């Protein structure tokens, strides 16, 4: 007959150096960041939804021109950039915590976290580039390819 371990019993420590001593206060800072970024993200997301869906003409008005007009303002560029960065960092920190909790082998944990960090950096870099280099009316483009609001 086999017995099931007590779920409230502390887990056996992993061999090797203690993870608690190598991290210092990083977990505390991660916990505080999750709470603070969550509050800021609520404001950013609901502000985004209000401006895009309620204040205007609803979802039918959101198109290329709407985004182009919105990102013509540095205020909305910074707003969307903050939303992108905070959402990505908040999500990455959450998934990092899940990986630390459930990945048993150090090699598995390393590979998963490496893939997570690479994906995060790629999305943040590409998103930032799109926000700041977006030009709906690129110079020297054929007028047939330009949106109707661009002057030739």
UniProtKB/TrEMBL annotation:
The keyword Cell inner membrane applies. Pathway: Carbohydrate metabolism; tricarboxylic acid cycle. It is a multi-pass membrane protein. It comes from the Bacteria. It is found in: Cell inner membrane. Its cofactor is heme. Keywords: Cell inner membrane, Cell membrane, Electron transport, Heme, Iron, Membrane, Metal-binding, Transmembrane, Transmembrane helix, Transport, Tricarboxylic acid cycle. The chain crosses the membrane at residues 28-51, 71-89, 110-134. PANTHER family: SUCCINATE DEHYDROGENASE HYDROPHOBIC MEMBRANE ANCHOR SUBUNIT. Membrane-anchoring subunit of succinate dehydrogenase (SDH). This is Succinate dehydrogenase hydrophobic membrane anchor subunit. The lineage of its organism: Bacteria, Bacillati, Actinomycetota, Actinomycetes, Micrococcales.
């Amino acid at each position: 007959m086999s017995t099931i371990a007590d779920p409230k019993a502390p887990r056996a420590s992993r061999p090797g150096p203690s993870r608690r001593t190598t991290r210092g206060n990083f977990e505390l800072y991660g916990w505080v960041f999750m709470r603070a970024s969550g509050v800021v993200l609520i404001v950013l997301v609901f502000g985004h939804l209000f401006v895009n869906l309620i204040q205007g003409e609803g979802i039918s008005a959101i198109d290329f021109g709407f985004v182009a007009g919105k990102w013509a303002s540095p205020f909305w560029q910074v707003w969307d950039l903050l939303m992108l960065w905070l959402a990505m960092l908040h999500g990455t920190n959450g998934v990092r915590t899940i990986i630390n909790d459930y990945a048993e082998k150090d090699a598995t944990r390393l590979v998963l976290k490496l893939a997570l960090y690479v994906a995060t950096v790629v999305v943040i870099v590409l998103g930032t580039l799109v926000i700041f280099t977006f030009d709906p009316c690129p110079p020297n483009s054929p007028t047939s390819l330009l949106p109707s609001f661009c002057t030739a």
